[in-house]
Amino acid sequence: MNKPPWSKLATWPPLGRVTVFLSIVVALWLPLALPLYWLSARGVLPGGDLFPTALLYIIFLMVLPRWERQVRGETQPWSKVGFAGRRQLAQGWAVGATLGALSIAVLAGVQVALGWANLDPSGARGLSLIQIGLVGALASTAVGWSEEVLFRGWLLRELEQGWSPAVALGATSLIFAIAHFIKPLDAMLALLPQFAGLLLLGLVLGWARRIAVNPGQTGLGHPVGLHGGLVWGYYLLEVGNLLQPTGTVPAWVTGLDGNPLAGLLGLALLTGLGALVFRWSHPLT
């Protein structure tokens, strides 16, 4: 059997392979992105960074299967990344999305039950909850798939080829949290209380990625669904303006600026969710 042309890269340290992969993606993207940024700066192209960012992700998706074939000789690269069959993906996504949405519902229910917030379905700012729910579903699905293919599909798999599963998951979760802080300094400082929550969320999604969908096979359905369900539930509460804090407890308990990732209650929820997903992905034998 002939070795794939770039098979020597498979023996490189994980961070070396990650650097090479990203360098290829950026080298292909930059010549196309610079004109888009130029047009955007002159007001010709609306959307700001939207089109260059979308282009970057498209190129990432184009390079990924070729990388798997050329470096590791994989004949079914998307299956290795986590696309484990339509039925398995659909089932995992449905279960994960339900669990994520229910988690946010529990978060809201605890606040209402303890008198920390009031539920106000009329606070949707002129939009119906159905409209908000549909828009949120589209946005959360896009976020779930894009981030999970990147972090739990490609990056986690890449780091696992050379590092222990625990170290690879910890590094992926750290990179996931840091990636959400690539902003101007003032915005980074404002978001700093969310860092622990993002790190914990990365661990939870990584364990969800390791839930078996077939004997010896895992997939992206559970983490994509869980991620999307959490984002959708938060979007519904935030944009729908459904929860009105009573001021009974400090904001750091329920979440600074309304973000549960920056609050004690949200961290407690993620801890409980993490314990559940960890046990699910590590069944007793």
List keywords for this structure.
single chain; 285 residues; mainly alpha; 2 domains; two-stranded antiparallel ribbon; 11 helices; globular
How would you characterize the overall build of this protein?
By secondary structure, the protein is mainly alpha-helical. It has 2 domains: 1-75, no CATH class; 80-281, no CATH class. Helix content is 68%, strand content 4%. The chain contains 11 helices and 4 strands. The chain has helices at residues 14-41, 50-72, 77-81, 86-113, 129-160, 165-179, 185-191, 195-209, 221-239, 251-254, 264-281, and strands at 117-119, 212-214, 217-218, 243-245. The strands form 2 sheets. It has a two-stranded antiparallel ribbon. Helix 1 runs antiparallel to helix 2 (50-72), helix 5 packs across helix 6 (165-179) and helix 6 (165-179) crosses helix 8 (195-209). The two termini are 37 Å apart.
Total domains: 2
Overall geometry? globular
**Radius of gyration from the alpha-carbon trace, in angstroms:** 20 Å
Note the total helix count: 11
Main beta sheet? 2 strands, antiparallel
* Contiguous uncertain segments of 5+ residues: none
Q: Structural class per helix/strand content?
A: mainly alpha
Order of helices and strands: HHHHEHHHHEEHEHH
Strand content: under 5%
Overall pLDDT metric: 90
Biggest sheet strand order reads 1-4
State the share of residues found in helices, binned by percent.
55-70%
Count all strands and give the number: 4
Amino-to-carboxy terminus distance:
37 Å
